[in-house]
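G., the chain you wanted modeled:
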Amino acid sequence: MRRLVLPALVGSLFIAACGQAFAQAQRSPDSSYVVGEPIRHKNLTIFPVLSKLEQNADRYITLDEGLRAGTVQVIEVGETPSEDSQAAPATQQGRAIQPPGNGPAHQSVIVQGGPRQANAPAHRTQVNFRPSQNAGNRVNQLMVVNKSAKPLYLMPGEVIVGGSQDRTIGNEMTIAPTGKPVPIDVFCVEHGRWHARDNAESASLYVTLEATDSLKAKELADKAQQGYFARTAGPLSKAARVAVQSEKSQQAVWDNVAKNNEALRVESESGTFTRSYADKRVQSELEPYVAELTAKVSGQNRIVGAIVAINGKIESMDVFESTPLFRKLWPKLLKSYALDSVSTVADAKAPAKDSKAAKTSPPAKESTVADASAFLNKVLQGTVRDKQTKAGLVITHRETDGAKSYSAGGMGGAPIHAAGFAP
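Predicted structure as tokens:
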């Protein structure tokens, strides 16, 4: 029994031992942060969130870091990790982990979307869950091995590419560097694929996503054929992230993936969210946001987070425990914010169903530092709706008028990440 709880216990000790100073600061959101002046590009506005105290501890490795370095493996449950070792227990608080969403991997469900032409109306398609290469594979669960020297931080909504279907992380969690396989909850973000991609297709996708050479792309594609997830694509859209954290429903995630792809006019035979990041037209639209905002935001002193406004409306925020963790996650977080911005523009350009509704809307009033500060305090001080311990982290769900938030911290209360969303 002692052996079974070791991975979760080690992760908790890392959190509790290293995060006390930040925990003390976070208890008073009003005095812990400063919201910086807005940095704008087109319809996207970023308000930097700066910590009043320096938070420079680099305690975690990110999923992107670990996959690139080869010190983190993400694999289908039915596959065997390299240098195989005994799996860590699939338990939380002494209970077996149940896959989130719609249950076991052999049921029939109705999904929104499916393959269709750009701008075509959504339709409902029946998809049957079934095992892919290996009968042990599970749609809503994967295994992660952390062989690095630091705990691995996983953020809900991160999309991982490969295996039998592209997935997204379902729960905020950390994984201790034990080298043991640990089960994690995930959601499928590709309802039309139930087997490994063809090697050529997979290699082409990695070339597009990674701007890598064909030899490296083939190596990644070979790993994907073996049930591995070789790279991250980027976070889900705001609506899909909310579906992951609020609804905990596979169907809701699929619905939001279909809406995202439709708004961006992205065609994908398998309906994968990853295509939004791999589509060359969309990439060309994201590039100006990335070029204009990456360094201007991440280069600020004591930066720990960002508040996002699109078309003048505050939409979301992400605040992390330290500057190093934020900076490591920022490039792909920015891409997800830009994706929502581009999606909004694309949606506005779509022909109106009712010609009378096709009037030009007046320009939105730009949001201000005061608006962003009010949103930050609102989401951090909202009424606690739910608090539970999962895999050594305390997950707190707060709701208030016009906003909801989710924060994850250690047993001692140290927050690693707080995410807030406006309606």
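The chain has a mean pLDDT of 80.

Shout if anything looks off.
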